Amino acid sequence: MNLSEIVSLIAALSILLGSIAALISAIGIVRFRDTFLRSHAATKSSTLSVLLTLTGVFIYFLVTQEYFSVRTLLTILFLYLTSPVAGHMIIRAAYNSGSYMYMKEFTKKGTSLNFRYDRKETKKDRRRRAEKRQMMNEAFSKNDKETFSKYKQVMKKDEPTLK
């Protein structure tokens, strides 16, 4: 086995690991019911899968055909920088709009990755929850512990329980 075959094997392994990470990401997006958990599955593992796949492609073409692709390197850099930021901004928008957030107190046996939330919500429910979160955040930033704890108790009572 010469060096070219070993590096090609490493590139193939990187592409295979990237494909497995993409499959895990797709399963996570389908399996999770919460907006925040879905976004976590989408951004973290998809970023890893694309980076592994493109790195494997870059190494393969560099070794077998002696082709140095600047486009592939720029794509890797671009995805590495923009994907986490985009995921963060999407989650921030979902949080500010009042989307339901997974909390372990609502499960029957502690934390569970098989948690499913099937309650239908209206825009009015989300708007009301977003306003309460905003008031709670303002009380926290002003260091008003009494108001913050009051809103925190109201938020716990307002959240639905698991059937």
From TrEMBL:
Listed GO MF terms: sodium:proton antiporter activity
Pfam families listed in its UniProt record: PhaG_MnhG_YufB (PF03334)
Keywords: Antiport, Membrane, Transmembrane, Transmembrane helix, Transport
Domain of life the protein comes from: Bacteria
Keyword hit for Ribosomal protein: no
Family per record: Belongs to the CPA3 antiporters (TC 2.A.63) subunit G family.
Protein name per its UniProtKB record: Na+/H+ antiporter subunit G
Record organism: Mammaliicoccus sciuri (Staphylococcus sciuri)
